[in-house]
Amino acid sequence: MSNRKTITFAFMDPPFENERTVTFFRLLDAALETGANVKVFAYEGAAALSFALQKAHGNAVHGRNETDEDHPLTKNWIAALQTKAASKDLQFDWVNCGLCVDERGVNECISGCGRGSPADLLRYATASDNTLIIGTR
Amino acid sequence: MKILQVVEQAFRTIVEEQDDTILWLTQSMISAGGDLEVLLTGNCAYYVILKQRQPSLTLGSWKQTEPAELNRDITNLLEKKIPVYVLHEELLERGLLDTPVHEDIQVINHDQLLDIYDRVDQVWQW
Fold this sequence. Notes:
The complex is a heterodimer. By secondary structure, chain A is an alpha/beta fold. Chain A has a single domain (6-134), classed as DsrEFH-like (Hypothetical Protein Ychn, Chain: A). Helices cover 36% and strands 20% of the residues of chain A. In chain A, helix 4 (98-104) links the parallel strand 3 and strand 4 (113-116). Chain A is globular and about 50 Å long. By secondary structure, chain B is α/β, with parallel strands linked by helices. Chain B has one domain: Hypothetical Protein Ychn, Chain: A. Chain B is built from five helices and seven strands. Chain B has helices at 14-17, 21-31, 70-79, 88-93, 110-119; strands at 2-7, 35-40, 58-59, 62-63, 84-87, 106-108, 122-125. Chain B has a five-stranded parallel β-sheet, with helices on both faces. A two-stranded antiparallel ribbon of chain B has the order 3-4. The two termini of chain B are 18 Å apart. The A-B interface holds A 10, 43-44, 103, 117-119, 121-122, 125-126, 130-131, 133, 135-137 and B 1, 3, 8-9, 12-13, 16, 21-22, 25, 28-29, 32-34, 122, 124-126.
């Protein structure tokens, strides 16, 4: 039996509006770095983090086109963490609150993320060593 | 696994969601078999004295028809025998101590809160 720890995260903030989102992703990366399995329940605005139609853009003020600007997108951060987890043989599970997805129209999520419900948060937490709740403010 | 839901951010998203989203989440997880209790802390202490629905939002010709009903959300929890706590000290500092609260809401002090934190398996601070 694996002695790896598993941690569940519940997160509520949307992709781009505040630094809590960046901190959340840094915590996910740090958890994987320490060898922990990660489970994420994306609630409310966080349901858009894995939205597949996020699109990078150029920035005329920066004087860079789309390629050079390489604008950060949370869907790419998730994909990068999925890859990191796989490379370390760790689990990285991600479920979006289905009703939150519907009301925001962000149904198309990247591969490896899925639609769920609060029952999944309960299932994740029960199967984890601990749970970190990061509510929106 | 017993979970204490600590709900601190009052009136968050209630216009759009038409409820308190954490009280809704709590009800959903209880329906899924969860073992949860609720502490209304900070400005959520105001929830225990609410008697009316929230006012409807009107924007131009659009009028909200089903505004949040937070006292209903709390009553739903109490009717399912879910413990709901509020701190005596937080009612006191908001001048709410003499305002009637639902008889099934448990008004506790900080010492009792410590016992609750010791008793549950996880504390989820929303």
